[in-house]
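Name: Phosphatidylglycerol--prolipoprotein diacylglyceryl transferase
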Amino acid sequence: MYALAILLGIILATIITSRRLTKRGAEPGIVLDIALWAVPLGIIGARFYHVFTHPADYFAGQEWWKVFAIWEGGNAIFGSLIGGAVGVFIGCKLTGLRFWSFADALAPGLLVAQAVGRIGNWFNHELFGLPTDLPWGLEIESDNPAFPQGLADGTLFHPTFLYELIWNLLGAALIVFVLERRFNMRWGKAFGVYLIWYGAGRAFFESIRVDPSEMFLGVRSNVWAAWAAVVIGIVIILVQSRRHPGLEPSVYVPGREWQGSDAEVDSDDTESDSDSLDAAVEGENDPGDAAATSPGRSAS
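Structure predicted for Phosphatidylglycerol--prolipoprotein diacylglyceryl transferase:
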């Protein structure tokens, strides 16, 4: 069931990202060309990040091949982000898409995928939080290997995976229905918001989980990773806002545009944004007018 939840999340993220990219002028179905790189590398990254943050489970006398025994469980979202980013970079290079354009289109779909994937934790009765007497507390069988020793049968625990599921869905809604309708969330800014939102929530949820984790300076390794995600997200937004204050002329790098993209411009954009986009595209073709029409635009 956990595997099915992850697969469903991947499918939903692909559909959402494809729809958003197509509305922004990308060739329909091009997301699959990138997914062929991003999904396998994301799975590999997720596994190896888990292994290296839980070394006692794999390097304390166990058989060496256990490192690859993914069917026994053990994946990490931060590792999948690293591996997936490498895959997206490769895929964008091959297809001509801008890396940041794809990342922005992916951001809400990634949150939806992570939310759906957390349903697998419920089926496995794992990755829960501290004991609680709240009415929505999760009951864990006392013979569950993850059940903390010394606690009475019937103890309820915080369903941290449920908290993260709700948090992720709220983040996806925030990006799509609020921020993108009020601000220019292109050039990687939507993805920066994703990193900040997910990192902030994960830092809290991770801090109240009871499953074993490597500690560094008294803090769980995944909390450090979550804080790093927040910092990286802030840096992306600040740097990209300064480098690219204007609209994104195309989801493709110059010279790699899909010929049918003019018919696929995002219908949700306002009329003024559409006029500015047309001017930016004209500036791309006429270097003499580029500075006047879109002074903040540059290839990325």
